Amino acid sequence: MRALRVLLFVFIAAAFTQCKKEGCTDPNANNYNTEAKKSDGSCTYPVITVRQGGDDGDVTGRGGNATATHTWNNSLNQAELNMDITSSKGGTYTIVVLDADNNEVLNETLTAGVGDDSLTQCSAAGVPGEWKVTITLSKFNGDGSFTLSAGC
C-alpha cells in the first residue's frame, strides 16, 4: 500500500512538472515570456557592437535590456557624439561618457517615439586619455548607431 502511494505521488508530481509552460524566462531578453515557468534555452538578447577603436558602433534590440562598457582613447579634452535610432518601436538608448578621471562629461538618451530620433552633442570639457563609454538599451526594440569624435 505504501509503495502504491509513493508511486501515485511520483506520477502526480511528474504530471504537474510536465505542465509548466516553457519559454524564455529572462526579463532582460528580447523574447521574454511572462507566462513561461521553465526556460527552454530560447532567449535572445539585444546586441551592442563596438568597432575597433571604440569610436563607433551599432545597437539592435527586440525589446530586451543590455549594457556594454568599453574604453576609447580621446587625445583632446572634448568629444562630439552623434547617435540615432532607426526603425525603433520602443524603449531607450543611452550613452554615458566618463573622462580619464572618471568624471561624467556626457549623458544622452534617445527614447523611441519621444522627441528626435537622432542627436549631435558636444561633451563637457574633460581630462584627455582613456575615456569610458557605457551604452545601455532598456526595453529597446529597433536599431541605432553612434559615433564619437575627438574634439568639438
Mind explaining what this structure looks like?
The chain is mainly β and 152 residues long. The protein has 2 domains: 2-39, no CATH class; 47-150, Jelly Rolls (Sandwich). It contains 1 helix and 8 strands. The longest helix has 17 residues, at 2-18. The radius of gyration is 23 Å and the shape is elongated. The termini are far apart.
Order of helices and strands: HEEEEEEEE
What is the number of helical segments per DSSP (H or I, 4+ residues)?
1
Largest sheet: 6 strands, antiparallel
CATH architecture descriptor text of the largest domain: Sandwich
Average the pLDDT over all residues and give the rounded result: 89
Total discrete domains: 2
Low-pLDDT segments = none
Highest CATH level, the class of the largest domain: Mainly Beta
Radius of gyration: 23 Å
CATH third-level topology of the largest domain: Jelly Rolls
Q: How much of the sequence is in beta strands?
A: over 45%
